[in-house]
Design brief:
The chain has a domain at 13-169: Alpha-Beta Barrel (TIM Barrel). The chain is 32% helix and 18% strand. The protein is built from 9 helices and 9 strands. It is of the alpha/beta class. Strands 1-2-4-5-6-7-8-9 form an 8-stranded parallel beta barrel, surrounded by 6 helices. The protein is globular and about 50 Å long.
Length: 251
């Protein structure tokens, strides 16, 4: 008889509330996904959620948008630039270029959990960014999870990096589109996520309630108000938040 696979357990997933893109303040040196925002989250004792993408030369950078325009003086898609070329553009008022994933891992150094949202590449080839994240994980011993809206990415980590916690991010497309709702059980079987992260504006809902009854963690994003926090506390196991939710007014 074949041995059963060991039960997956990542209790740290819900130990702390999670700062969305770090503990950031727009228009300051603690801009979203910056090293300063990550450091502030760590010092405050919160987990950290960040967004990552791959450059044309396969470096994984911490940056939310597909393009440079909103937060830098550069133009075009992030994945059309090399990492050294991107360094000439500073992010917001940080005075620094976008950090690499390796930079963030070095900074956190296992002190708090890191939740890495992997963005789907514009060219639709997930191999480069997934393999790049895997390379960054080499030698890192702290609690770290990957998560994505893209089921292909979650499935990739199930197949090639099964020891790491993996989560499926769900929003309007998944829960309000009838075709996507029909595919939901199939997606769960193929990806076998360790947690789900659901849009707070869709909470509560029957799909997430059924998921939570399985005993697996449910996170919710992005909690920004007292009302959203109240809903999140009742219907989820941990919050992905931005101030003033959770920590109050920071001004």
């Amino acid at each position: 008889m074949a041995a059963k696979a060991p039960k997956r357990s990542f209790p740290w997933i819900t130990d702390l509330d999670i700062t969305h893109r770090g503990l950031f303040t727009t228009g300051s040196e603690r801009e979203e996904n910056s090293l300063a925002a990550v450091q502030a989250a760590v010092e405050a004792g919160y987990a950290v959620e960040i967004d990552v993408r791959a450059t044309v030369d396969n470096i994984v950078v911490v940056f939310h948008d597909a393009t440079l325009e909103r937060l830098t003086e550069g133009k075009g898609s992030v994945d059309q630039w090399g990492f050294q070329q991107l360094k000439k553009y500073t992010v917001g008022k940080t005075g620094l270029p976008m950090p690499s994933l390796a930079d963030v891992l070095d900074l956190v150094d296992g002190r708090v959990p890191i939740f890495i949202e992997i963005k789907s590449p514009e060219h639709d080839d997930i191999q480069k960014v997934c393999a790049g994240v895997r390379h960054c994980f080499e030698g890192y011993a702290g609690p770290v999870a990957v998560m994505s809206f893209d089921p292909r990415i979650v499935r990739w980590f199930r197949q090639y990096m099964p020891k790491y916690a993996r989560g499926l991010v769900v929003g309007r497309e998944m829960l309000l589109n009838w075709k996507a709702r029909l595919m939901w059980p199939f997606v769960l079987r193929k990806t076998k996520p360790d947690f789900i992260a659901c849009d707070i504006n869709l909470m509560p809902n029957s799909a997430c309630e059924r998921w939570r009854k399985t005993g697996k963690p449910l996170l919710t994003w992005t909690v920004r108000t007292d009302m959203q926090e109240k809903v999140g506390r009742e219907h989820a196991d941990a919050l992905i938040f931005e101030a003033p939710a959770v920590i109050g007014d920071q001004s």
